[in-house]
Amino acid sequence: MSWVFGFCGASDVEGVRNGLGSALLFRLSIPGLYLEAGGIPDTSFYETTPDGSSGWVAVGTGIRLTDSQAGFLTKDDWRSAIAAMPSGRAGIDGHFVALRWNGDKVECFTDQLGLRSLYFAQTPRGVFLSTRLDWVARSAGLHRIDLAALGSRWLMFNQLSYASCVTGIQRLGPGGEACFQSGSIARHSNSPWSPSFSDGQGDGSPILSSLLECGFDTGRTPSLGLSGGLDSRLVLAFLEKRGKRDFAAHTLGDSEDPDVKIADTIAGITGLEHQHFSPPAPDVNSLITILRSYAPQLILTEPVTSIARLGFAMTLHSQNKLMVDGGFGELSRRQFLNRLVTAGKSAIRSRDSLRLMRMMRWRRGDIFSHEATEQMEQAVPGEIEETLETMPLLHEIGIENFVDLFSVRTRLPNQAGPEQALLDSEVLNYMPFAQPSFLRNTFATSVSLRSNGRNFKRLIKQLDPRLTRIPLTKSGLIYPFRLSRRIAWLLLNFKARLGKGFRDPFPDNILHILKEYVFDVAHSKEVTTCDFYDHAKITTAIERYYRGDADFRSSVDWWLAFELWRQSLHTE
Fold first, then answer.
1. What was the pLDDT predicted at 500?
2. Which end of the chain is more exposed for a tag (fewer CB within 10 A), N or C?
3. Cα–Cα distances in Å, from 285 out to 124, 489, 506, 513, 545?
4. Residue 393 has what DSSP assignment?
5. Is residue 114 within 8 Å of 439, Cβ to Cβ?
6. Per 3-state DSSP, what percentage of the chain is helix, strand, and coil (rounded to 5)?
7. Domain with 148 in it: what CATH number?
8. CA dihedral 404, 430, 21, 570 (to 10 degrees)
9. Are 421 and 116 in contact (CB under 8 A)?
10. Which helix (H) or strand (E) holds 97?
11. 129 neighbors 118 (Cβ within 8 angstroms)
12. Strands, DSSP E only, in 111-243?
């Protein structure tokens, strides 16, 4: 990731040097304060006085939208923005962690949505801080996993709280602010993002257009992550409407994947330069290196077979490209947590946390002991209740707005945040749909226009009718563009029951490359002495999977991701 590591302490800072980060760009060592920052210059900014007694660092990307004109923050912009924080943060989109210091006082800030996080821990020596959880854990000697905090991250769609999941380490999430002084934590807080709500008829077009336009002022060629879905197609429609062919596209996946095939069709019809990244099939040693590098940063948001696909972003960076990602457009077309809208309204109103937990349950892997699983399960209802307490009243904003805001507050920082941090170290990138300015407009748009992708489809038809004649894809299946969400769901469900969906061979290929490594790790001392694993379950899952039982793939896939993350808290 585009990263920061630091130590604030009354004791001598000599010997604190992290030594873990790659692509070091900045280092400061003065009495009471040690800082490092690195990554790529596009997402790393810093400045100090000659003696280093004061200065600032910003990692990530800032975007300012003024009078319908958007632009990426330059070094001069960052200087002014950080001086005005925290109040000045309200006018900045993007994803970032910013620090400023003066003497032994260090203040830290995170973006409004919490797409970037800062971790910190108090020790007898002082305060360790970093954008990487594993670096704080190793430096501070804190590696005990907080099973209660881990509960929702492992058992549900995504974590709900902004806890670090490691005992003794705290986290700045959305709208975070912390102050460290004289080697101690003076204060810290998070401010979950809130929009204003109205039932207007805006559609977000001017804001989205401005956010896309700012990508052409970076000196890099925007490259759109193109898929067979609706969100990237809307972005493409806006880009095509400009009438200039000064952008490109890229797609990741197997050549037989319907997502890739539809993206190829779109590129052919529009004449768009389109780069296809096929999933790699590396040798086992290269694969293990990739996994040990990326798994600690992704913090259990992806299994190892998904992690193995990463790395293409560095190629885009080497080609002088800016990555434009249509991610989280689902928030603006009412696609998250619809089960809560249709069947969970009474549970939300009555704060029935057990029922809500069942409705948001997600299967990863059954790898923990009964006691550990019970500890996680017992913690989740309380976390749900605490999250609901921070939300606006249901009857004031309506169930649809309620679940969408719930998704913004919990899914963006906890599910998208880790990958966002990783990408920031490899390529200049951003998600136009996941910006506060665009989301504010989303919540000011009528629910009826947002629902069923109605607004997105209407805009695509207006901007580029050609794109409405190309089918859409979802879950490895193809369906006509014109279908309503309900009819599309029925058709996709019918096709899935007939086994007509694309079966991606990549996950099995990766796990079979890793077979010997998986068995070695499972029988290592680090695993067999871990007291919260159920070793019989892990061994059974591995043996059954490699004998051909695909039902155990998920447990093996997620267990290895968990173990690589767990090990990163202890050693390199």
1. 78
2. C
3. 39, 42, 17, 10, 22
4. P
5. no
6. 45, 20, 35
7. 3.60.20.10
8. 20
9. yes
10. strand 92-102
11. yes
12. 118-122, 127-130, 170-172, 177-181, 184-189, 221-225
Q: For the chain, how many residues are written? A: 572
Please tell me the pTM assigned to this model.
0.95
Could you please report the per-residue DSSP string of 238-271? HHHHTT----EEEEES-TTSHHHHHHHHHHHHHT
- Kindly state the greatest CA–CA separation across the chain: 70
CA atoms within 13 A on the CB side of 569: 22
What was the pLDDT predicted at 15?
63
What would the pLDDT profile of 416-425 be if each residue is shown by its tens digit? 999 999 999 9
**The total number of structural domains that make up the chain:** 2
Residue with tokens 């300015």: 437
Contact 485, 233 (CB under 8 A): no
Both 182 and 72 in a single domain?
yes
Q: Which two tokens stand for residue 529?
A: 């002495």
β-pairing, 33-38 vs 54-66, is unpaired
Residue 46: helix, strand or coil by DSSP?
Answer: strand
CATH, residue 319: 3.40.50.620
In whole angstroms, give the CA distance from residue 320 to residue 322.
7
Instruction: Check if the beta carbon of residue 22 is closer than 8 Å to that of residue 289.
Output: no
List, for residues 191-229, the tens digit of each pLDDT value: 999 998 876 666 678 899 999 999 999 999 999 999 999
Helix ranges, 271-390 (H): 284-298, 304-307, 312-318, 338-343, 345-349, 353-359, 370-389
Structural contact between residues 390 and 190, judged by C-beta atoms closer than 8 angstroms: no
Question: Does 353 map to a domain?
Answer: no
Confidence band for 20, pLDDT divided at 50, 70 and 90: low
The amino acid sitting at 339 is R
Range of the domain at 448: 205-332+413-497
% the chain with pLDDT above 70? 97
